[in-house]
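During the reporting period the student researcher (J.K.) took over the structure-prediction task from the postdoctoral fellow and processed the backlog of single-chain submissions. One of the processed entries is reproduced below for the supervisory committee.
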Amino acid sequence: MSGNLNVEQLVDAARQRTGLDDFGPDTWQEGLGVLVKSLNEESALNARGEELMAGRIVDLLAERLKFEQSWKDNPSIADEQIVRPVIGIGLGRSGSNALGFVMAQDPNRRVLRSWEAHVPSPPPEEATQYDNPRIEMQAARHKAERAEFPESGDKVPTDPRGPTECVFVLAYDFRSQLFEAWGRNPTYSEWLFSCDMTPAYDFHKRVLQMLQWHCGPKDWFIRSPPHMHGVFELGKTYPDARFIQTHRNVDDMIPSEAALFSSLLTQLTDEPDEPYIGRHLADVRVICLQRLMAFRDQHPDKFFDIGFYEMAEDIMGRIRALYDWLGDELTDEAAQRMEAWWAANSAGRHGGRSYDAARFGVDKDELKQRFAFYHDRFPELTRKR
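J.K. obtained the following structure tokens:
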């Protein structure tokens, strides 16, 4: 069945909503075209799924229009420097989200906050950053998403004021693994994993410049597991970046990630095809890890490693070691806030559940073989406790 999403109508809707027509560099059209074709022809969206996807695409286009207008209105934003960012990278469901929330407790560190990622313009101001009306907008969005996708909220901690993934920012150029969670989109996936991610990271950098312009600090921690597949372009965009790689045994991770995707897709389609989800995730995670390992081989001194299991055992021990490696001061205030957040959001509440691999079309013995190149390289970090 062919869907009803139409690129021209979506673009026109964004223009009408904002009264703007300048989308900036012409790099977003190709990805949007492939995505819409894939959603129409392959995703088997139900009526509600089609409505939601249309709304989200228009949201992305409208925010891109608003961003470009703010950029033109404030040319000095382009003078902002992003210096030595710390970037969280690695497998999904490996503790990266929890690590992001822990790092966000340090008042001297800047993170990409959920409300900023979804509505980055106008540029935030330091004086109003804690009572910005966009925070309430994002809180309402979270509430609506919890109602629409009730199971997903148990798997990932969320907070409109808290940190979120860069995957949402990359989506403004329609080169993002965010859309992997929108349906069974093999054509888009094939395009995404072969495209040049440079335009998406160029836009990503501009977003960080805008966010820090009048709202510090400027010592960034950003994160997203999907950075793995574009890590070479990411490294060129931020040549002085330091990386924190989180690790987990893949035969735990793939079923856990597939369960998260399934909880989203069951609301968008009447044919969620759970075996496809698991097999597809295994395929793309092989690609992602292979690219990341190749990048690490070229830049071995840029990486600090944290394992999912050791994080659960001694989070503050690993954080202190990380700060020593970074050469940054871990203040008493930051450490106390980190410990308090961890105590209230233990790993057992987010990510500790076991999932049936066979339900998602994968075999754990086969996963061990396919990902041996990764497990053998990091045996202690991926060893189950």
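The committee noted the following: The beta strands are 86-90, 110-111, 220-223, 242-247, 303-307.
J.K. will present the remaining backlog at the next meeting.
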